Amino acid sequence: xxxxxxxxxxxxxxxxxxxxxxxxxxxxxxxxxxxxxxxxxxxxxxxxxxxxxxxxxxxxxxxxxxxxxxxxxxxxxxxxxxxxxxxxxxxxxxxxxxxxxxxxxxxxxxxxxxxxxxxxxxxxxxxxxxxxxxxxxxxxxxxxxxxxxxxxxxxxxxxxxxxxxxxxxxxxxxxxxxxxxxxxxxxxxxxxxxxxxxxxxxxxxxxxxxxxxxxxxxxxxxxxxxxxxxxxxxxxxxxxxxxxxxxxxxxxxxxxxxxxxxxxxxxxxxxxxxxxxx
Length: 278
What we know:
- Strands 1, 2, 3, 5, 6, 7, 12, 13 and 14 form a 9-stranded mixed sheet that branches. A 3-stranded antiparallel sheet has the order 8-9-10, with helices on one face. Strands 4-11 form a two-stranded antiparallel ribbon.
- Helix 2 packs across helix 3.
- The chain contains 9 helices and 14 strands.
- About 25% of the residues lie in helices and about 30% in strands.
- The protein is an alpha+beta fold and about 280 residues long.
């Protein structure tokens, strides 16, 4: 399974209510995650609103997320890593919390669990972000976008994180403990020996994809469901010709465009925009 098959499943879906589809979704995917996360995972297995799904999640995903660690899912056979973000305002920003922005997810990442690292033999996966706008428990839109269309290479953000951490470490702060994956913790800051600790950690975020790509993507009617996907041409070409033909002959609109390369703002890269509205 892959994102194109998920898009086809969504294009055939008739009900985007998290309440109405809850029972079907729970029969398809594991209990891990919140309703939107489970709905998105179910779309990779079949129609989330259908009682008859082509697959169950264990056949599609080698990992289905943890409580506090990214990603929310990983597709089998070294497929995409998926991070799902729910927003409750149409143009709301996307919170990554302590996770750094990523083009790819690496098995060496300190933020992922041992289960994610060992679920299968892998080194890196393309990072797929899924933003879902939910209003009155109905999904109004899903926006799928690959990390290499919005972020620089991972190392850029890791270098920024390390520079801040090193700068803090150079300060003469007796209480500062910098073990772990955050900037540090100020321990026993009041000297009362009651474990009054202050955590110093990044709260990372980025703009809504509708804002980032406002010149090439428009949300026409938020009362009905819409789907958008942005990926590089090079990614689109990795999918089998049969599934590409099927999606190009479906109700999904597939068009070409360009965006500035996040790693080199003087160059543009070719992308595919896939969209439909219910």
